[in-house]
Specification:
30 strands; eight-stranded mixed sheet
């Protein structure tokens, strides 16, 4: 077979039967050490190609990773073949051969000098963080948590089934968790597709002194490529049935025996797997088929494993050397070869149908992992999300505007029961999520209720049927009908899309001509920013006077809970851009109770009954009036304000609700907290912002975040997308909070250029 380049040549490795096994069993080794460098060539190829395809890795951009060996070599291979400079952060344990190979391939090798809190691993990660600051456009593959790591082994699983057919036991070393968990998961699917009915037993091999499977950390262990001082996100205990630990002496002895008995010159990861394979060859039932993965060659270890002088210097002879594993209870500290059953708790998946493009969307993916869930992003265009490379999330490309394509993607990638829930942080996909959840029998809102919230004219009809106060509203589908609509609402009136996000397209009109022109502009729009068809309808509404508030609610065990009320300050007409929020709103008890009663009735009227809701109201002289209801969390940093004020983390609670986990709402005393948004006063391109650091240093300021980059176009804000950044602060009183936010804004100057 002729390959177009070295990247295509990765994989296609042979399987050999061990000569030392009994004749009535099949014990085979998958020689991943026959890759160009080692097994992690597969991971490097997958991660780099996926990052390029998703737009996360720009052409020619640097790659930076922490590695002590084989992952570094795989990235060197991929970077060299695809035109990316590669920086490898490592420690003094790197062998001279690997370092010579990396240097020969043009890599920059950065060696840390000393361990830090969590051994060499944490020292390397700290140095990596410094390099990422030095190279802001660089890509970090994050081998320990990148979901593409385990996904890279799907091809390996297919190769095993093609070569061996039925497989009963899989044995592999565990370092980042990606190779064994990824191969096991894919192999179970491949065996099922091939018609194999028997269960697959998966046995992991770890190092004594590694924390991966309930052992205390011993940073001085000498095994390389196996074990860890940190728990990587790609380690899925549900995929592993049994774990074996070997100390350094036992692993190195087994590696030498592998060369002597099988003629395979390998590294200690392969040697450790060989030790367990030999044990299984003597103990499994006749007819059993066992395969082990041999990850690495032995050339890196000529000065250690294969050097008698090294053995003497290292005192390896003082360690225990067992010829069979001791069976122990999981969690028992071991000093030599031992085995235990792994208590497996399946890691279920939380599926996101697209996301918003702000930090909240990427933050939600990280919060899902914090809950023990594996986040999955279904998207038609991964490159839309600047932070996806940092999100440790499995990305599946499909047409997210097609309900059948969404369902097919889940059926293709996951078995029934693997998906804990489906959700989104993008308002544009709330209906798709509701329909998908309903079809899969997962937690969610009734699709009809979500559709009514998205189509504002439907919201108005339901509120009218319930007799709830709201603005006079007239749906219009033809520009010719605008004069009658304006006559019904009066002037000034609000003209807005029937279905869009945030304040997009909302305009206060002071004449029939202005209202007609704006309606014509909106009706000419056939698709929104996510390429979804929009209904040919606008709403002409009465301009309701009074302060604006938003009410955040969430369902807990079927009961609606009011989390709190936020005061909102919007820009002067004609646009309605939210410029400042304060939580909790400075309201008396009577005002709060009136708003809460109205919101509860409105949510019941539209039929929502799951997760978070965000309702906007104006408090008029006659009482609260419903402006709109959204089947989602609030935007405008309101969930973050609530969290910083001492309230619940609504983003996490919304994810818990989506996965049918208990929603937790702690009750504590709230501290006034607010956000003020940065906007431009003229059109131009952003040259920079002055005074950001002094603003950050003001007492009470928690965060100053700039969301636009130099060179981005800036204009006076007409909707939420025109905002440049924000300041968040807390204070003992609302008055003091406003003074703090005002002072922060006064420090910051937005500089524009017309170049």
């Amino acid at each position: 077979m002729i390959f177009n380049d070295l990247v295509e040549a990765v994989g296609h490795t042979p399987v050999v039967r061990l000569r030392t096994a009994r004749s009535d069993v099949t014990v085979a080794a998958k020689l991943e050490l026959q890759n160009l460098f080692a097994m992690k060539d597969r991971v490097a190829r997958q991660v780099v190609l996926e990052a390029r395809a998703n737009g996360v890795l720009a052409p020619g951009a640097p790659i930076i990773e922490s590695s002590s060996g084989t992952m570094a070599l795989g990235l060197a291979l991929a970077g060299h073949a695809l035109g990316h400079p590669v920086h490898i952060v490592t420690d003094p344990r790197i062998d001279a051969i690997t370092r010579a190979k990396l240097t020969a391939l043009g890599c920059s090798v950065h060696v840390v000098e000393a361990m830090t809190a969590n051994g060499w691993q944490s020292a390397r990660l700290e140095r990596l963080a410094e390099l990422r600051a030095e190279y802001p456009g660089a890509f970090w593959p994050r081998q320990y948590s990148n979901p593409q790591n385990p996904l890279a082994y799907a091809a390996l699983a297919d190769e095993l089934v093609a070569d061996l057919g039925r497989i009963d036991v899989l044995v592999g070393a565990v370092g980042s968790g990606g190779s064994l968990c990824g191969t096991a998961r894919a192999l179970r699917h491949a065996l099922k597709a091939a018609g194999s009915s028997g269960p697959l037993r998966v046995i992991g091999v770890d190092a004594v002194g590694s924390v991966l499977f309930g052992q205390p950390d011993q940073p001085g262990r000498r095994q390389s490529g196996i074990g860890n001082s940190l728990i990587p996100a790609n380690l899925d205990y549900a995929e592993i049935d049994e774990i074996h630990w070997l100390n350094d002496r036992e692993a190195f002895v087994a590696t030498r025996e592998l060369a002597q008995e099988e003629g395979l010159f390998a590294g200690n990861s392969s040697g450790s797997v060989y030790r367990v394979l030999r044990h299984l060859a003597d103990t499994v039932a006749p007819g059993t088929r066992v395969v082990g993965i041999f990850p690495d060659r032995g050339d890196r270890y000529v000065d250690s494993i294969y050097d008698d002088a090294y053995w003497k210097r290292s005192g390896l002879a003082g360690l225990p050397l067992r010829m069979a594993p001791a069976t122990v209870r999981y969690g028992t500290e071991v000093d030599g070869w031992a085995r235990a059953e792994v208590p497996s708790t399946p890691r279920r998946r939380l599926v996101f149908v697209e996301s918003n493009t702000t930090g909240t969307g990427m933050l939600a993916l990280a919060r899902a992992r914090d809950l023990g869930l594996a986040p999955v992003l279904l998207t038609g265009r991964p490159g839309r999300y600047p932070g996806i490379g940092e999100a440790d999330c499995q990305v599946i490309r499909c047409d997210t505007n097609d309900g059948d394509a969404l369902a097919a993607a889940l059926r293709t990638h996951f078995a029934p029961g693997e998906v804990a829930g489906v959700t989104t942080t993008s308002e544009f996909y709330l209906e798709a999520v509701a329909r998908l959840a309903a079809s899969l029998g997962l937690p969610g809102n009734p699709p009809a209720a979500v559709a009514a919230c998205r189509r504002k004219s439907a919201t108005r009809r339901l509120l009218t049927d319930a007799g709830l106060p709201q603005p006079v509203s007239v749906p219009v589908t033809r520009v010719a009908d605008m004069p009658d609509a304006v006559a019904a609402t009066g002037l000034p009136c609000v003209v807005k899309p029937a279905s869009d996000s945030a304040s997009t397209g909302v305009l206060l009109c002071t004449s029939v001509e202005q209202a007609r022109d704006h309606a014509a502009k909106l009706l000419a729009i056939t698709h929104n920013v996510r390429d979804q068809a929009v209904p040919p309808e606008v709403l002409v509404e009465e301009h309701v006077q009074g302060p604006e508030y938003s009410v955040e609610t969430i369902f807990v065990a079927g009961e609606l809970h009011v989390v709190g009320i936020t005061r909102k300050s919007v820009s002067p007409p004609p646009s309605f851009v939210e410029l400042r929020h304060t939580f909790p709103a400075p309201l008396d008890k009577a005002g709060s109770r009136a708003i809460e009663r109205m919101v509860r009735a409105a949510i019941e009227a539209v039929g929502l009954r799951h997760g978070a809701c965000h309702t906007e109201v104006r408090l008029t002289a006659k009482g609260p009036t419903i402006i709109e209801i959204n089947a989602r969390l609030a935007g405008g940093m309101i969930p973050e304000l609530i969290r910083l004020a001492g309230g619940p983390d609504l983003l996490t609670q919304q994810l818990r609700a989506a996965a049918e986990l208990p929603v937790e709402l702690p009750r504590t005393e709230l501290i006034p907290t607010g956000v003020a948004f940065l906007t431009g006063s003229a059109e131009g391109r952003l040259a920079g912002l002055e005074g950001v650091e002094p603003a950050r240093r003001l007492p009470g300021v928690a965060e100053v975040l700039v969301t636009r980059r130099a060179g981005d176009p800036i204009r006076p804000a007409t909707d939420a997308y025109d905002r440049i950044g924000h300041v968040i602060a807390s204070a003992d009183s609302v008055a003091e909070l406003d003074r703090t936010l005002d002072a922060a804004l006064e420090h910051i100057t937005v500089r524009l250029t017309n170049d």
